[in-house]
Amino acid sequence: MDKSKGMIEAEISKALTHWEKSYLGRGSISVKTDIVRDMVIVTLNGILTPAEYALCRDKEGLLSIKTTRNSLVESGQEELKHIVYSITGEEVISIHTDLSTQTGERVMVFKLSGDLEKKFA
What we know:
alpha+beta, elongated
């Protein structure tokens, strides 16, 4: 691979920020990507709107925001898999994601078909 691990991680962060803005209508405040063995772990900070934080004050609102936000990501799963594949050359086997309504942070884990980290050793 002719690109460094850091370059690939930065490229994924930039691509996912672009996806958020074009697909969800707004992007996170900051994105950090880490390649660990056969996983790409992406942490997106500042993804909730002030109105969503307000709704999260009670359990019903919190569950509603989590469900809605997770459904939005699920509906864009094929595009997300394609983005990661086009940058890494590794097929995405599965995507795992969760959102913290307390910190407004989303963690996404892309499980890959091969050990991407070994390619940089």
